[in-house]
Design goal:
The protein is an alpha+beta fold and 253 residues long. It has four helices and 14 strands. It has a five-stranded mixed sheet with strand order 8-13-14-11-12. The chain starts with 6 loop residues before the first helix and ends in an 8-residue tail after the last strand.
Amino acid sequence: MKHPASPWRLAPLLLLAASTLGAQAKTGTLTGTVLDEKGVPVPNVEVAISKVSRTTRTDSAGKYILALIPVGSYDVAFRRVSYAPMVFTLDITPGDTTDAEVKMNAVPQPMTKVIVEDRGNPRLEGFEARKKMGIGHYVTRAEIEARNPLVLTDMVRTIPGTNLRPAGMGQSVLRFTRASGKGRGGGDCPPAYFIDGTLAVGYNLDDMPVSDVEAIELYSGLSALPSEFAKARSNLACGTVVIWTRIPNKKTK
């Protein structure tokens, strides 16, 4: 004969359920589509909320999604090479989905002859300084254009300490051999990714189009990792990859 559960047994379950629902209610989801001025979907647009270090990119249909964002009001940046960057303030509500359609305008391509004094790319000053120190491994735009790879992982195959694993659809995932045996599963330790200095969650090297990249930095562990990246809350022991995107119309020396 079955007996009903006593109240003292039900209480912990009720508290657990209430706690779970409370945690879910404190986050929301941001989704939407990015279109150009003609209403055509724009793929590979970077969608970033720097305040919470969340980044994603639009798919081939121009759609994007950022889940489990803490409730609040955020500046959401949309950026794509050859398009004017856009920033919108959007509200994330508890347990709900915020849908935002964004239209981006292509950057005009002026043909007027001008004389420009090339003082370099200020965003890459840190990259150049670290490259001179030689504490990591570095890939430049000139090297990318010389090799003309289909995907970015083709640029790191010959770098010591890298290990590429097939991920399907012609893509691979990067792992550092010195991190083998660490992290989840005892052998799959994904590195942390930064895009223009912002931590990108759930990212892989081949997610970035080759044409959008100006430079790449690779650090296999914590010992040589620059302090500006070591401050991020991530599994940095698995290695770090820093990607710097291109500035439209910038010519490679």
